[in-house]
C-alpha cells in the first residue's frame, strides 16, 4: 500500500472517531501548550536579557578588576596597601581589595588587540542643577558609544562633545523642563567638591554642560536611569578635580578595556586572567542572566514534559481500544493482501495524526493566546514595548514534530498488536 | 489452474489435536465455478483459508499458476492475494463508516494501484453491481442485499482471477440472495475468473460447474472436476 494512501486512511479512521481523537489530542495539547509557552518565554527572556546587556554594555568591552589575593583566609595587615572603607567600616567588596594602578593600566594597554583602557573614574560629584532650580544628587558616568540608548529627545551619534551631557528623563523632569525636548541645548551645572586632604580646605566648583540628549525610560536600560552621561574626558576631568591628592588617587577598582574586534574579547580575557586580573565580557554577563532564565525555562518545560508523558498513556490506550474495535477491519485488510508492515503503519500514522492534531491545537492556542496576552504581560511587568513571549516558527514547528514523534513511539505497541493479528481469527469476530 | 496436493491442517496440540482437513487433493481448472459443500465444522472454511494462503497447513501444496503459495514468503503471499484473489464473506465485512467508494477502493490501494486509475475502476465495479448511485453514501446506510453487492464490487474491482466466497448468501433472504449470486456468476463468466463458493446451500451449489463435498476433513464426493488429482 502506498504511504500516502495509508496516511489518508489513517486520517479518515480518526475522523470517524472524532470525539475520542479530539479528547486524546487535547491531552497532548496541554503538553504542547505548556512547552510552546515556556519555549516562547525562554526565547523572550533571553532576547530581553540580550537587549538589556547590549543596551548597557559593549561586546568589545571587558570589565577588568585586579584579582584579589584573598582566598577567604584572614589577611595579614599591610599598612602600605590602601584600604577602601565603607560607611560601616567594611568594604562592600570584602575585607581587602586590590586596586588597578596606572602601571596596571599601562601593562593591560600593551596587550595586542586592546585599543583602549579606561579606568572607571566614577567621580564623586555632589549635585546637578540648572539656573533657578534646586540641586539634585547625581552620579556621572562615561557615555559609551557602543551602548545603545533610547532617547526621548535629542540624541547622540558617537559625537558627544566634552562639554555636553545626556540627562535621563527623570532628571530632565526634576530640573524643571516640562518636556524632554525643552532640555535640549540648555545648560546644566554639576557641582563637585575636592576631596578633603590633610592640608587642603574644602573647595566646591560647578562645571557646566550643555544638554545634548534626554534618554528615555526604557525597559532595557539600567545604567542610564540614575546617572548622567558625559564623555570620558569630562569624567576624567571631574575625577581629577575631585580625587587629585587623595590617597586613592589614580587607584581604580574597575577599568574597562576595549578591544578592536568583538571576537577578541574572549582571548583578551584569557590573557588578562593569566596576568592576575579578573575580566568579564558582555557575553559573561549575558551568560549569568541566561543561566537564570534557563533554570526557569527548565522548570516550565518539565511541567510540559510531564503533561506529554501523561498523554502518552492516553494515546496508547486510545489506539489499543481502536485496534480491539477494528479487529474485523484489520482481518479484512490482511485478507485482501495488506502486509503486516502496512497494517502497522496504518496504526502508527493514526497515532502520528493524533500527535499532530494535539501539537497543532496546543501550540496554536499558545501562539494565539500568547500573542493576545503579550501587551498585557508587558504592561503588568513594566517592560514597555518589549514582549516577553516570543514565538519562533522553528520552535513551534519543533514542538509539533516532537509530539508527532512521541505519539508514534506511543503508537508502537498498539500498532504491533494490529500487525500481528491473525486474519482468520480476526474475521471470525462478528 | 489451482492444484491442491495432500494438504493437512491440524488445530491444537497432542491429545487435543483436531484434524480439520486431512490429506486433501484436487485440481480446479481456470474459469471454473466450484462449490465447496459441507456441514459446519466439516473443514470447508479451513480449506478455503489454506487455498488462499491465509492459513498455512502443515503438509501439502497449493499450486496456483505454477507457484506453491504455501512456500512463498509472507510478503509475496500478501501480494498474491492483493493482485489475484479476493474474498466475499457471509457477514459482508464492509466498513460501515466509510463511503461505498472508499470501501471499494481499499483493494486497489492495497494492490498499489495509482490514484489516477482507481476512480474509473471503482466506478466500473459499482456500476457492475448496480450501486453507482450509492457511490457517496455511507456503507451503513445500505440494505443487507446492497451491502453484499458492495462487497462484490470490492471483490471484483481489481479484476481478480480467483474469488473466494464464504457463504455469500447466508445472511440474505432468497430473493436478494439470488440477485447477489447472479452478480457473482456474471463476473466469473464475463472475466473468466475462477469462483470458489463455500456453502451449505444445495441450490447455490447446483449453479456451479463443479462440487466438492467435505465431510470430517476429507472429500466425500466430488463432481465436475478432473479426476487426476483425486486420491
Describe this structure in words.
- The complex is a heterodimer of chains A (430) and B (231).
- In chain A, helix 1 (3-16) crosses helix 11 (340-381) and helix 9 runs parallel beside helix 12.
- Chain A has 13 helices and 12 strands.
- Chain A folds into 2 domains: 3-53 and 288-428, no CATH class; 60-280, no CATH class.
- Chain A has 430 residues and is of the alpha+beta class.
- Helices cover 53% and strands 16% of the residues of chain A.
- Mean pLDDT of chain A is 83; it is low at 84-95.
- Chain A is elongated and about 110 Å long.
- In chain A, the strands form 3 sheets. In chain A, strands 3, 4, 6, 7, 8 and 9 form a 6-stranded mixed beta sheet that branches. In chain A, strands 2-11-1-12 form a 4-stranded antiparallel beta sheet. Chain A has a two-stranded parallel ribbon with strand order 5-10.
- In chain B, the strands form 2 sheets. A 6-stranded mixed beta sheet of chain B has the order 6-7-8-3-9-10, with helices on both faces. In chain B, strands 2-1-4-5 form a 4-stranded antiparallel beta sheet, with helices on one face.
- Chain B has helices at residues 44-51, 74-84, 100-110, 115-128, 144-156, 174-191, 202-206, and strands at 2-11, 18-28, 33-37, 59-64, 67-68, 85-88, 162-166, 194-199, 210-215, 218-223.
- The radius of gyration of chain B is 18 Å and the shape is globular.
- In chain B, strand 9 (210-215) and strand 10 (218-223) form a beta hairpin.
- By secondary structure, chain B is α/β, with parallel strands linked by helices.
- Chain B has one domain (30-57, 73-223): Rossmann fold (3-Layer(aba) Sandwich), CATH 3.40.50.
- Helices cover 35% and strands 26% of the residues of chain B.
- Chain B starts with a strand and ends in an 8-residue tail after the last strand.
- The chains are: A alpha+beta (430), B alpha/beta (231).
Amino acid at each position: 500500500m502506498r504511504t500516502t494512501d495509508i496516511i489518508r486512511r489513517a486520517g479518515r479512521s480518526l475522523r470517524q472517531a472524532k470525539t475520542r481523537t479530539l479528547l486524546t489530542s487535547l491531552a497532548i495539547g496541554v503538553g504542547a501548550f505548556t512547552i510552546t509557552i515556556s519555549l516562547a518565554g525562554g526565547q523572550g527572556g533571553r532576547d530581553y536579557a540580550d537587549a538589556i546587556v547590549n543596551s548597557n554594555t559593549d561586546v568589545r568591552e571587558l570589565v577588568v578588576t585586579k584579582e584579589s589575593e584573598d582566598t577567604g583566609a584572614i589577611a595579614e595587615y599591610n599598612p602600605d596597601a590602601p584600604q577602601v572603607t565603607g560607611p560601616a567600616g567594611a568594604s562592600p567588596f570584602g575585607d581587602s581589595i586590590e586596586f588597578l594602578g596606572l602601571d596596571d593600566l599601562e601593562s593591560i594597554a600593551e596587550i595586542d588587540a586592546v585599543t583602549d583602557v579606561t579606568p572607571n573614574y566614577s567621580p564623586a560629584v555632589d549635585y546637578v542643577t540648572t539656573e533657578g532650580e534646586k540641586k539634585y544628587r547625581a552620579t556621572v558616568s562615561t557615555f559609551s558609544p557602543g551602548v545603545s540608548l533610547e532617547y526621548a529627545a535629542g540624541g547622540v551619534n558617537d559625537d558627544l562633545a566634552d562639554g555636553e551631557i545626556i540627562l535621563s528623563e527623570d532628571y530632565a523632569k526634576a530640573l524643571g523642563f516640562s518636556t524632554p525636548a525643552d532640555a535640549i541645548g540648555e545648560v546644566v551645572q554639576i557641582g563637585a567638591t575636592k576631596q578633603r586632604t590633610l592640608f587642603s580646605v574644602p573647595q566646591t566648583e560647578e562645571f557646566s554642560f550643555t544638554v545634548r540628549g534626554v534618554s528615555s525610560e526604557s525597559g532595557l536600560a539600567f545604567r542610564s536611569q540614575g546617572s548622567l552621561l558625559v564623555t570620558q574626558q569630562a569624567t576624567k576631568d571631574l575625577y581629577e578635580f575631585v580625587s587629585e591628592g587623595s590617597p586613592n588617587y589614580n587607584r581604580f577598582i574597575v577599568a574597562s578595556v576595549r578591544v578592536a574586534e568583538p571576537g577578541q574579547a574572549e582571548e583578551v580575557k584569557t590573557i588578562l586572567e593569566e596576568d592576575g586580573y579578573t575580566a568579564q565580557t558582555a557575553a559573561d554577563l549575558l551568560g549569568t542572566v541566561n543561566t537564570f532564565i534557563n533554570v526557569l525555562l527548565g522548570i516550565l518545560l518539565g511541567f510540559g514534559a510531564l503533561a506529554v508523558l501523561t498523554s502518552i498513556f492516553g494515546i496508547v490506550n486510545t489506539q489499543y481500544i481502536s485496534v480491539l474495535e477494528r479487529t474485523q477491519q484489520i482481518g479484512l485488510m490482511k485478507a485482501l493482501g495488506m502486509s503486516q508492515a502496512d497494517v502497522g503503519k496504518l496504526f502508527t500514522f493514526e497515532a502520528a495524526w493524533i500527535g499532530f492534531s494535539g501539537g497543532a491545537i496546543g501550540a496554536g492556542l499558545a501562539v494565539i493566546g500568547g500573542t493576545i496576552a503579550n501587551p498585557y504581560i508587558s504592561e503588568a511587568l513594566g517592560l514597555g514595548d518589549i514582549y516577553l513571549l516570543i514565538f519562533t516558527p522553528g520552535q513551534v514547528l519543533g514542538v509539533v514534530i516532537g509530539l508527532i514523534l512521541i505519539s508514534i513511539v506511543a503508537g508502537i505497541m498498539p500498532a504491533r498488536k494490529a500487525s500481528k493479528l491473525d486474519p482468520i481469527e480476526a474475521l471470525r469476530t462478528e | 489452474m489451482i492444484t491442491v496436493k495432500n494438504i493437512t491442517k491440524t488445530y491444537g496440540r497432542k491429545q487435543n489435536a483436531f484434524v480439520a482437513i486431512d490429506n486433501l487433493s484436487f485440481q480446479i481448472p481456470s474459469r471454473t465455478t466450484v462449490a465447496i459443500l459441507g456441514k459446519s465444522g466439516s473443514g470447508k472454511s479451513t480449506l478455503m483459508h489454506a487455498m488462499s494462503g491465509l492459513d498455512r497447513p502443515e503438509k501439502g501444496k497449493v499450486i496456483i499458476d505454477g507457484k506453491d503459495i504455501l512456500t512463498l514468503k509472507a510478503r509475496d503471499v500478501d501480494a498474491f492475494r492483493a493482485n489475484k484473489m479476493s474474498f466475499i464473506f457471509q457477514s459482508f465485512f464492509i466498513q460501515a463508516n466509510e463511503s461505498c467508494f472508499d470501501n471499494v477502493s481499499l483493494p486497489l490501494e492495497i494492490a498499489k494501484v495509482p490514484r489516477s486509475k482507481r476512480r474509473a475502476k471503482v466506478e466500473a465495479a459499482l456500476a457492475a453491481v448496480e450501486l453507482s448511485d450509492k457511490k457517496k453514501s455511507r456503507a451503513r446506510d445500505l440494505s443487507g442485499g446492497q451491502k453484499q453487492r458492495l462487497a462484490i464490487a470490492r471483490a471484483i474491482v481489481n479484476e481478480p482471477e480467483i474469488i473466494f466466497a464464504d457463504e455469500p448468501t447466508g445472511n440474505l433472504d432468497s430473493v436478494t440472495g439470488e440477485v447477489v449470486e447472479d452478480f457473482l456468476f456474471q463476473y466469473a463468466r464475463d472475466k473468466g475468473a475462477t469462483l470458489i463458493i463455500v456453502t451449505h446451500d444445495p441450490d447455490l451449489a447446483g449453479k456451479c460447474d463443479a462440487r466438492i463435498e467435505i465431510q470430517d476433513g476429507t472429500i466425500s464426493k466430488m463432481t465436475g472436476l478432473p479426476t487426476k488429482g483425486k486420491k
